[in-house]
């Protein structure tokens, strides 16, 4: 997790405007679109491929706006320019008790309505 934070921070600093564009969320992954909240984590995936990520951990807060670069199974890659980081999805979006849930990097997230 720390490695991802450092990698994404570095890619934001090294990004060249207009070098890469976000990949829109494909139709078969539309359930990923929306705002997801979990313990000390917020993830907002937009249909056009913009991804906003916030995570609070002891001693540090991380807040990033990055581009979706594509999906690999249930996991998805984000990044800027040539640098990518993978969000590991152990439980893809699914309905549970009337709410949408998914688990990323060990954190259970619930989609806001």
Count of distinct structural domains: 1
How do the SSEs run, as a string of H and E?
HEEEEEEEEE
Alpha-beta classification:
mainly beta
Unreliable segments of 5+ consecutive residues: 10-18
Strand residues, percent:
over 45%
The strands making up the biggest β-sheet line up spatially as 6-5-4-3-2-1-9-8-7
C-alpha-based Rg, rounded: 14 Å
Shape estimate: globular
Distance between the termini: 27 Å
The overall strand count is 9
- Report the sheet with the most strands, covering strand number, pairing sense and barrel closure: 9 strands, antiparallel
CATH topology call: Lipocalin
Residue-averaged pLDDT:
87
Helix share, percent: 10-25%
Based on the structure given, which CATH architecture is correct?
Beta Barrel
CATH class: Mainly Beta
Enumerate how many helices there are, as a single number. 1
């Amino acid at each position: 997790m720390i490695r991802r934070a450092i990698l994404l921070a570095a890619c934001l600093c090294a990004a060249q405007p207009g070098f890469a564009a976000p990949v829109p969320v494909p139709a078969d992954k539309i359930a990923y679109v929306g705002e997801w909240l979990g313990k000390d984590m917020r993830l907002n995936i937009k249909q056009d491929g913009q991804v906003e990520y916030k995570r609070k951990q002891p001693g540090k807060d991380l807040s990033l706006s990055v581009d979706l670069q594509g999906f690999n199974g249930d996991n998805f890659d984000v990044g800027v320019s040539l640098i990518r980081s993978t969000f590991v999805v152990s439980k893809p979006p699914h309905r549970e008790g009337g709410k949408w849930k998914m688990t990323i990097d060990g954190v259970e997230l619930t989609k806001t309505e």
